[in-house]
Write a structure and sequence with these properties.
The complex is a heterodimer of chains A (about 325) and B (about 290). With about 325 residues, chain A is an alpha/beta fold. Chain A has a single domain, classed as TIM Barrel (Alpha-Beta Barrel), CATH 3.20.20. The N terminus of chain A is likely disordered. With about 290 residues, chain B is α/β, with parallel strands linked by helices. Chain B has three domains: about 100 residues, Elongation Factor Tu (Ef-tu), domain 3, CATH 2.40.30.10; about 120 residues, 3-Layer(aba) Sandwich (Rossmann fold); about 50 residues, Dihydroorotate dehydrogenase B (pyrk subunit), domain 3 (Ribbon), CATH 2.10.240. Chain B is built from six helices and 16 strands. Chain B is globular, with a radius of gyration of 18 Å. The chains are: A alpha/beta (about 325), B alpha/beta (about 290). The complex binds flavin-adenine dinucleotide, flavin mononucleotide and FE2/S2 (inorganic) cluster (FES). Flavin-adenine dinucleotide (FAD) binds next to strand 4, strand 6 and helix 1 of chain B. Chain A: It catalyses: (S)-dihydroorotate + A = orotate + AH2. Chain A: Its EC number is 1.3.-.-. Chain A: This is Dihydroorotate dehydrogenase.
Chain lengths: ~325, ~290
């Protein structure tokens, strides 16, 4: 990709580099909300996106949890899919080749019941062409073993990341859970153990009940909340994570529009993943990408990297030159 | 077959029975390839995030030449209420055509039974229309419709089907129209005694109806398809939310699931583990006023 290849001189440069992972733009799709990518090829050109994170893959196929697996909640949804997937063998045989053919940048989300399973998956996937990075899912709230149990304990998180790191040279993303006391602590552990990138957040552990039948709405009783309802939580998590570590962070959670995505970028996410919005509008991720491009043109932003992490937390009183106590002012008060 | 997203214009909206509305949608990209038994995901909120998810609706009638389809909707919650209040002239976001439709009979000498419980008439009507125009043109007497509802006020008038010569049997739980009892009672009354079974049976209705019907047909030599329901988020096979417990022929105890939006919604009931199906929560309408 040459520096000079921009077709229109006014087109903003949307390329981002997340450590070793170089993307044409910062809009990716979130695991579990974009199937294996192919489900969406009727609706959009998959190669336009920054990347596609496929449904979480395990060594063996998993049937998932009993239904009902879904419930709608105010401005969000609850799911307890239970990481149903076809297993790595069928993924490589049936899903990856057609996805590769469509020119998509493919990131594989991996999960296991044990540290060794994560490591084995990493080594199986490492030798395969067309995989741009691995995303380690240690944050799914819907499974009993593995999943969130690894993501809520810094030592376990570090163990998983280190084991995966030892078996692959692919760029590694570790996906963090919001269901912890200190996301910064887990972030540091994952980064120190060799994760190149962090992504946050996975779904928020939550519940819905029907007062008439007195039954939980999910067979699993609790599930993971996603959608616009969690965006403020996700933004806070990204904010805390970017301050805790020096590696790039991908923002996820409730992104429905370009404006939502921009909030994450300004807070310091180097890229975003669009999740539940794909389920609602199959073309959502492309709309968001187009919206970011339009925003940059309108705001005269030449390169999106100039915009990322420019959150201004300085406090300003228009008629006083005294700073407030929130933060030391970054620059002179206006 | 391509699936598309388009803004569909609501051309008409009619109240057809108590709590049941019929919308006529202009969806020229979706309708031409649509088949009876398939469905669309309709985004109810025009903007904003509440309700967030689109809602699935079967094609009730297809008018391919005009790019029109009709959906029949029963108001059960916030989404269907909002949709029932939409004015003609406004647009809704629609994705379709989705899922597998019915397998239509190929021969005109087949006797075909339709079993519709309540809003279950929605997808069956599209198939009836199709057969009346194709295989069973000239033989409407081989099409038998059993249509039941709780009460007369919830029945949708189907005079034109009767006029077309379809054999219709109506039933209501309270006896306020047609025969008293469930639609299955009506079916059993005719066919338990008959020495001959229908060749095919298509059904759509409530979970109890489906469970009982699945039990009834299991002991009989009838080819059956049912349109089934499940909670859906995407309708396109991406979220894996719409699972139904399925029979694994090789291992009856194995935990297996079908996905209603992709494998269905039209399915052979023998493929479902009915003992594991949890009913979707049915909320009484007073919930809205509490
Ligand atoms: C393939 C398919 C085709 C369908 N076709 C039709 C149709 O032609 N006409 C029609 O009126 N309805 C149809 N439905 C059901 C319809 O989608 C639901 O009634 C609707 O989603 C409820 O939305 P709501 O916002 O009004 O209710 P909500 O407020 O979301 O829920 C109200 C109650 O309805 C139950 N419910 C929610 N979703 C469903 C569902 N998918 N199926 C059954 N109950 C549900 C919930 O458990 C809840 O208690 C179909 C469903 C599927 C899966
Ligand atoms: C139906 C569904 C399935 C999901 N499956 C996975 C998964 O397999 N692996 C994973 O890491 N995250 C999974 N997630 C979490 C999402 O990738 C994302 O982190 C979360 O939904 C928050 O983003 P959103 O609000 O934009 O949806 C899933 C989410 C949903 C809604
Ligand atoms: S509704 Fe999403 S997979 Fe069926």
């Amino acid at each position: 990709m040459g520096q000079s290849a921009t077709p229109h001189s006014s087109a903003p440069d949307l390329r981002v580099s997340l450590g070793p992972l170089h993307l044409a733009n910062p809009v990716l799709t979130a695991s579990g909300t974009f199937g294996y990518g192919l489900e969406f090829s009727d609706f959009l050109d998959l190669s336009r996106l920054g990347g596609i994170v496929v449904k979480g893959i395990s060594l063996k196929p998993r049937p998932g949890n009993p239904p009902p697996r879904l419930a709608e909640t105010p401005c969000g949804m609850l799911n307890a899919i239970g990481l149903e997937n076809v297993g790595v063998e069928r993924f490589l045989r049936d899903k990856l080749p057609p996805l590769r053919q469509r020119g998509a940048v493919i990131i594989v989300n991996i999960l296991g019941n044990t540290v060794e399973e994560y490591a084995e998956l990493a080594s199986v996937l490492s030798g395969v062409s067309g995989i741009a990075a691995l995303e380690i899912n240690i944050s799914c709230p819907n499974v009993k073993r593995g999943g969130m149990a690894f993501g809520t304990d810094p030592h376990m998180a570090a163990q998983v990341v280190a084991a995966v790191r030892a078996r692959t040279s692919l760029p590694l993303i570790t996906k963090l859970s919001p269901n912890v006391t200190s996301i910064a602590e887990i972030a540091r552990a994952a980064h120190d153990a060799g994760s190149d990138i962090l992504s946050c957040i996975n779904t928020v552990s939550a519940m819905a009940v029907d007062p008439f039948s007195r039954r939980p709405k999910l067979a699993n009783i609790v599930g993971g909340l996603s959608g616009p309802a969690i965006k403020p939580i996700a933004l806070r998590c990204v904010y805390e994570t970017v301050r805790a570590v020096s590696c790039p962070v991908i923002g996820i959670g409730g992104i429905q529009t370009a404006m939502d995505a921009l909030e994450f970028l300004v807070v310091g996410a180097s890229a975003v993943q669009v999740g539940t919005a794909n389920l609602v509008h199959p073309r959502a991720s492309l709309h968001i990408l187009e919206g970011i491009e339009k925003f940059c043109r309108h705001q005269g932003i030449g390169a999106i990297t100039d915009y990322i992490g420019t959150l201004d937390t300085a406090c300003r009183f228009p008629f006083a030159d005294e700073s407030c106590s929130v933060e030391p002012p970054a620059r002179e008060p206006v | 077959m391509p699936r598309v997203q388009e803004k569909a214009k609501i051309l008409e909206s009619h109240k057809e029975a108590e709590g049941t509305y019929r919308l006529v949608l202009y969806a020229p990209k979706i309708v031409p390839t649509a088949r009876p038994g398939q469905f669309v995901m309709v985004r109810v909120a025009s903007e904003g995030a509440d309700p967030l998810l689109a809602r699935p609706f079967s094609f009730h009638r297809l008018h391919k030449e005009d790019g029109l389809c009709e959906i029949l909707l029963r108001v059960v919650g916030a989404g269907t209420r909002l949709l029932s209040q939409r004015q003609p002239g406004s647009s809704v976001d629609v994705v379709g055509p989705l899922g597998r439709g019915f397998t239509a009979p190929t021969r005109s000498d087949e006797t075909v039974v339709f079993v519709a419980g309540g809003i279950g008439i929605a997808p069956l009507r599209a198939l009836l229309d199709h057969l009346l125009a194709t295989t069973h043109k000239g033989h409407p007497e081989r099409l038998h419709l059993y249509y039941g509802a709780r009460s007369a006020s919830e029945l949708i008038a189907l005079h034109d089907l009767k006029r077309a010569g379809v054999v219709s049997v109506v039933s209501t739980d309270d006896g306020s129209a047609g025969e008293r009892g469930t639609v299955l009672d009506a079916v059993q009354k005719r066919w338990n005694a008959s020495s001959q079974m229908p060749n095919r049976l298509y059904a759509c209705g409530s979970l109890p109806m489906q469970v009982n019907l699945a039990r009834w047909v299991r002991r009989r030599d009838i080819w059956v398809e049912m349109s089934l329901e499940s909670m859906m988020a995407c309708g396109i096979g991406a979220c894996l939310g719409c699972a139904l417990p399925a029979v694994d022929p090789e291992d009856p105890q194995a935990q297996r699931y079908l996905h209603v939006c992709q494998d269905g919604p039209v399915l052979d009931p023998k493929r479902i583990r009915w003992d594991k199906v949890q009913p979707l929560i049915a909320r009484p309408l007073i919930s809205a006023s509490l």
